Amino acid sequence: MVCNGPVAVRYPRGRAQYGCDSFNNDPSGVITHMTGEEATLICYGPILEEAAVACRVLRGNGHCDDVDVTLLQLHSPTNFSREELASKVKGRHVFVVEEVCHGSGISGDIALCLQDAGLDCVVHPVDLGNDFVPHGDMHSLYVQTGLYNGCIPSHIREVLRHE
Predict the structure, then answer these.
(1) Is 103 left (phi over 0), alpha (psi -120 to 50) or beta?
(2) Element (H, E) at 95
(3) Residue 153 and residue 81: Cα distance in Å, rounded?
(4) Cα distance between residue 158 and residue 99, in whole Å
(5) Bridge-partner residues for 69, per DSSP?
(6) Residues 95-109: pLDDT tens digits?
(7) Residue 146: DSSP 8-state
(8) pLDDT digits (tens, 9 = 90+) for 111-122
(9) By C-alpha distance, which of 159, 152, 161, 144 is closest to 55?
(10) How far apart are CA 122 and CA 61, in angstroms?
(11) DSSP annotation of 61
């Protein structure tokens, strides 16, 4: 790649508006925000807020389609403790929620990590898809691409329903 000017690559750590601290002193740490047994959501960066609300929606209020989920946050998509991540994953289905084009995220790396740890699970990417993402405010784009908290639970329930 040739670059003739300044370039900035930024992976913001995210800040959840739902009352939990998303930072700790370990840059390779894996933070557990919620613990459940049926499935795991993994995210990093500003998508944490959407994932957290989605988890609350999935947990519901005692309905038959409620899903008991674990929510994990990575401080970095490339420098995370694989052992810590594997030890915190719950359930057979792992959903990696990230703001990337399909096939360009860390879902494959996480799948390999969990396979190497001997876990029998399926990793599902939840991302922007293959289409071009137009200009717009973050919430509108999340809604359009299915990365907002109203779409994520439906997608997860659909996957679990077909197991």
Answers:
(1) left
(2) strand 93-97
(3) 27
(4) 21
(5) 39
(6) 999 988 888 899 999
(7) T
(8) 999 999 999 999
(9) 152
(10) 26
(11) T
